[in-house]
Amino acid sequence: MSSWWPLLYLITVVLAALTDEIDHQKGAQTLFDLWHLIRDLTWIGIAVTFRYLELIWPWWSYLLLALAGKLLWEWTYATARRHRFHEYDNQFVMPLARYLWWLGFGKKERGL
What we know:
Elements: H1 5-26, H2 33-51, H3 59-82, H4 107-110
Helix pairs in contact: 1-2, 1-3
């Protein structure tokens, strides 16, 4: 697993940028299922990344990975904002989400 955690880290960075874009651009609007799905996937990615984090590479490689993550986050956020990604949250419906209400899903089905 040690060779896979940098890729998982970068995927988590992308998901975090998308989550922030949805959250920041919607302002006072209700956050629906897409935001919650991406937020939960981000936390799962972070948990798995830190679970398998091993210091097996030179110290400077972690600095380069952090810099790559920062640049990837900025690029993803700007791209999502340009393409108005946050508007998809109002259209994204998960039919089985009513069973996952305790995770924040299914607000549209409950009329919230």
